[in-house]
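User: What would this chain look like folded?
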Amino acid sequence: MRDAAGTLQLTVRNRAEHQQQFEDIVIRRNSDGGRLYLGEIATVIDDVRDTRNMSMFDGERAVLIDVMNSDHMNIVSMSEHVERYLERKQNQLPAGITLTLWSNWNDAYQSRLSIILENAGSGLLLVFIMLI
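Assistant: Here's the prediction, encoded as structure tokens.
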């Protein structure tokens, strides 16, 4: 969403594809059951003509697609699905068009998880030593 003050990112849990579906997104619920809809506070325009920016990657024109997971999504599974999709889709694209994975947060997630598990194991070992 963009206005004179800048850009605001709107995150929703439901999938909306058309203007009316976006307008029907509930922004706020009152204790008395009242609802405030996005369409009541914003003008929703179903349009993709925003061409003010041009992205470059490795010296080539690029389109950035940011794949984000929900609160309940498995990061490892999501990463594997995206990687398989890129491999499968690359074979279907015309010559000169490539799909590149630029950043994968799964690597950082796996690293942090590994540290947590190592620390938990060390802590458990210290507890057993103290009990003996």
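The chain has two domains: 1-52, 71-132. If you want, I can go into more detail on any region.
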